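Chapter summary example.
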Amino acid sequence: MSRPAGRVLALLELLQSGGTRTVAELADRLGVDGRTVRRYVDQLTDLDVPVESVRGRYGGYRLGPGYRLPPLMFSDEEAVAVLLGLLAGRRAGLMTAQDTAGETAAAKIRRVLPKHVARRLDTLLESLAFTDRPGPFAAPDAGILLTVADAVRHRRPVSIRYADRDGRRSERTLHAYGIVAHAGHWYVTGADAGTGEERTFRLDRIADARTLPGSFEEPAGPPPAQRVVSGFATAAYRHEVTLRIHATPDRIRTHLPATVATLTEHPPATAEDRRAEDRPPGSPAAEGPPGTRWLRVELRVERLDWLPPVLAALDRPFVIERPEALRPLVTALADRLASNAQHR
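The structure predicted for these 344 residues follows.
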């Protein structure tokens, strides 16, 4: 690469770092005079790189938005960071429907990496392990994702065509509050303009999205991520379960996260709660670690059979308020554990 060509790319790298650069600053960084800087800018604009001229006392040049992505100049550390980000996104399922885009982007970066950096990256990837296997996921269409994001940013209504988990299709207008990535999926949360109800939709189930005229004000309340998590915990399922558990919130959350159950404070322990502890009041075993108290736990589930093992794993006193169908399942598990403990 000739020195002038190298300086043109160096100029592009300086502009990509953001902000407006004065001609004097650019000339000093490149080791040329102001006239040469202007000539290099002309060469970039000839290549369709959107360089804007800013007039005034603090004017100079800056990189503006263009109709296509201009050539990017990455340092070695930046290139590795981008590749690891692509890998992590693919593992987590947070990719768009055009999943080949991530593969081709990674291939382009790897192709131009210096050999010593590529070798070190390969060493890292060979030694990198994940605690879980990537599961199947349905990623959203990139165009739909960007359209919804624009509606969120500018508080504009968005019309969507949606298919629920049973395949039923509907068209509705959404006042979208935010986009949330959770458990390998993209979600949008907001208010259904037709019903006024707050709803959460999976973006990969949206077949079409288009912004509409007008605007709306987001109501006061929790941030979008908390809205989505709370929505999962309170969604309609076959069984409504209410428990009282004598434990710390952190201990309960290790087995029943916020996406599954809601926790609320419970009044001081009743006589029934004391009997559930089956330990003398005030004993260390009954009191538990600091922060232990009776908490009401509510959740909605399709099946009850997985709850008894969770309650056993908690290893803390509990009271079942509802449903009655949960009691024999817990008793049956206790009988099996007692029977197995007798085997030699």
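To summarize the output: The first helix runs from residue 3 to 16.
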